[in-house]
Write a structure and sequence with these properties.
Blueprint (H helix, E strand, L loop, with lengths): L1 H15 L8 E4 L2 E4 H4 L2 H5 L8 E5 L5 H12 L12 H4 L14 H6 L6 E4 L9 H4 L3 E6 L2 H14 L9 H10 L7 H10 L6 E5 H6 L1 H11 L6 H10 L2 H5 L36 H14 L12
Parallel strand pairs: 3-4, 3-5, 5-6
Antiparallel strand pairs: 1-2
Helix pairs in contact: 9-15, 12-13
Length: 309
C-alpha cells in the first residue's frame, strides 16, 4: 500500500515533466507566493479544517519535516513501520502547495485523508485560513534563528527547481532581509505567530531548543497534543527523529521527489541540520550588516532566539 502511494506521488511529479520550472512570485495580500499558489488562492483561503486537525506552521527550512515526523510518531505510539506508510507530503499534506498537473495539490491530498490530519503550512499567520482559528485547531509553530534559517533556505532554493533562482549568496542576504523570498519576510513570520501564541493557543517551539534537548521538546509536543506515551517510546521517537536517521529514511528525506523538482546533487533536502552553520557562510562584514538590520526589524518584540552572534 505505501509503495503504491509513494509511486503515485513520484510518478505524478515525473509526468509533470517540462511543466516544471522556476515559478515566478505573485503577491497575495502583500506576501510573495509562487504563481501556482497565488492563482489558486481563493480555494486555499476557503479551506475548512476539522476541529481535530493539527497545523504545523513554519517559515521554510525551520524544522518542518522534523516536527511532522515527531508528531506522526507520537500519534502512532512510536511505531516506525506505521510512519513508513507513505512519504511525508502524503502523510502530512502541504496545505497551500499547488503545482502543474498531474502533481496533486495539498488540497487534493487533504481530501483523500480522513481527520484528524497533520497539516503543514508555511503561510504567515494572517494568511492562515480562518477556519483553523474558528474551529480552535491546535497549531505547532517552529522558529529557527534568522542566520541559520537564511543559510538553509539559500541551499534549498539552489536545489528546489520550482522556486525563484536564488542568485549568488551575497545577493541572497539582502533579499532575505527585505522579505523578497517565497512566503515573505522571516521577521514578520516569526513575530506574527509569537504575538498571537497565547490568544490562539499556539505551541511555539524553537529549533535550537529541539537540537539542545530533543527529549524535552518531544515531551512538550506530547503534552500539547494531550497524548501519553511511555518513556521508552519517547526515547525511540528521539532516536528515530535524529538528523542522521531521518536523512536515511526514504519516507522522510524527500527522495520521493525526483530530480526535475529537487536536485539533490546540488544540495540534499536534509543538508546539515546544525545550529551555528551560518558562521561558515557569513563574512564578518555580512554578519555586521545583518545584525544591524535584525536589531531594527526585531526591536518591537523580545523573542528569545539564540546563537545569532
Amino acid at each position: 500500500m505505501s509503495e503504491e502511494k509513494e509511486l503515485s506521488y513520484s510518478e505524478a511529479i515525473q509526468r509533470a515533466g517540462t511543466n516544471i520550472c522556476r515559478f515566478p512570485l505573485i503577491p497575495v495580500r502583500g506576501i510573495p507566493l509562487m504563481c501556482y499558489i497565488a492563482n489558486n488562492w481563493d480555494s486555499i483561503w476557503a479551506f475548512r479544517p476539522d476541529p481535530s486537525d493539527l497545523l504545523i506552521a513554519t517559515y521554510p527550512k525551520a524544522g518542518t519535516t522534523w516536527t511532522q515526523e515527531i508528531v506522526d510518531l507520537l500519534q502512532n505510539n512510536g511505531d516506525a513501520e506505521a510512519c513508513k506508510r507513505a512519504p511525508t507530503p502524503v502523510r502530512s499534506p502541504f496545505l497551500e502547495i499547488f503545482s502543474p498537473p498531474p502533481i496533486p495539490s495539498g488540497l487534493d491530498q487533504l481530501k483523500k485523508t480522513d481527520p484528524p490530519r497533520i497539516i503543514k503550512t508555511h503561510l504567515p499567520l494572517q494568511l492562515v485560513p480562518t477556519g483553523f482559528w474558528e474551529n480552535k485547531c491546535k497549531v505547532i509553530y517552529v522558529a529557527r534563528n534568522a542566520k541559520d534559517n537564511l543559510v538553509s533556505y539559500f541551499h534549498f532554493d539552489c536545489m528546489n527547481l520550482t522556486q525563484p533562482e536564488p542568485g549568488p549568496w551575497e545577493g541572497y542576504i539582502p533579499k532575505f532581509m527585505r522579505g523578497e523570498l517565497p512566503w515573505g519576510s522571516w521577521y514578520d513570520h516569526v513575530k506574527g505567530y509569537w504575538t498571537e501564541r497565547e490568544t490562539k493557543n499556539i505551541l511555539y517551539l524553537f529549533y535550537e531548543d529541539m537540537k539542545e534537548n530533543p527529549r524535552r521538546e518531544v515531551e512538550r509536543i506530547m503534552r500539547y497534543l494531550d497524548l501519553s506515551v511511555s518513556d521508552e517510546v519517547i526515547s525511540r521517537i528521539v532516536e528515530l527523529t535524529s538528523f542522521k536517521n531521518m536523512k536515511e529514511n526514504p519516507m522522510a528525506n524527500y527522495s520521493c521527489v525526483p530530480a526535475p523538482v529537487f536536485d539533490q546533487s546540488i544540495s540534499s533536502f536534509m543538508r546539515k541540520g546544525e545550529v551555528g552553520d551560518w558562521r561558515n557562510h557569513f563574512t564578518p562584514e555580512q554578519s555586521k550588516m545583518f545584525d544591524e538590520d535584525y536589531e531594527k526589524q526585531m526591536k518591537d518584540v523580545n523573542i528569545p532566539f539564540r546563537d545569532l552572534i
